[in-house]
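If it is no trouble, can you show me the amino acids of a protein and the tokens describing how it folds?
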Amino acid sequence: MPITTIDKDVDALTLTVVADFPAPVRRLWDAYQDPRQLEKFWGPPSYPATFTRHDAYPGGLTTYYMTGPEGDTHGGYWEWLAIDAPNSFEVLDGFLTDDGEPNLDMPRIRMTFAFEATDAGSRMTTTSHFASRENLEELVAMGMMEGMKEAMGQIDAVIADLEAFAAGRGTDAQILSDTQVRISRVVRGDVEQVWRAHNEPDLLKRWMLGPEGWSMPVCEVASSVGETYRYEWENDADQQRFGFTGELLGAEAPHRMVTTEAMIGNEGTATRNEMTLTPVDGGTLVSMLITYPDAETRDMILATGMTDGMETSYARLEQAVLTA
């Protein structure tokens, strides 16, 4: 059990948890920045968490839900207030309604996470700040302290896994629900470089090509919200073509971009793609949450070898663009 102390201060309206880990600060820090890792310990074992958004930058938003043993779900969110990598971050933590909106009838907590090196590895101090004594007592009565103990008891196993989330692992596809899939890949480059590679036509044409033997003769990028983009690829051997088009719904450079995407000529299978770029040890974590219209469309698209094609392109990005 990594927790060293828990201190409830009803006068200061705080709950402070100190935990020690046999791992470097950076390894512990990255576990909180990567949604794949975070969801392995944020919820207690009986209520595992699934993260559907994780913007680790000031002004960003994190959303997640915990699933209970009876299939019941309970949503939560973080509003990111500050970040000082890899030393500390601060969020406003709250509950979500069944519709995915902030539940203003439930208390919100300002939480600070501070990381420091120790002789044995690293120490994390988590301080929860409550708006009132009633809020503090209400959440403690709901099992907040017990839940934190159970959740943090899972962190050691996550940070000990040096292979599952490392740079060089390749592209992973994780099915989150009937309609959502998360694609993840650590790319060896900084966030600014990876953002430019996704938004500059001259760079896109050099790496977003899939298998060998294809070129990208059409690369029309959407640079402002509301604009449309159009990408077309051509087989160099027989000039066969296919392409995608969509609309830029939102952009927060260099961290987050939201688009629609549909195959040209088959716009009925449009998806919503939310890409988030997060700095981690070894490069930039590219996390793409894809929302499909239904499970059938999800399975049909995954069966095309989409993940393998994305891995080929990301490997080319590292070799032909970021290290060129």
Summary: The first strand starts at residue 3 and ends at 9. The chain has two domains: 3-160, 172-322. The mean pLDDT is 93.
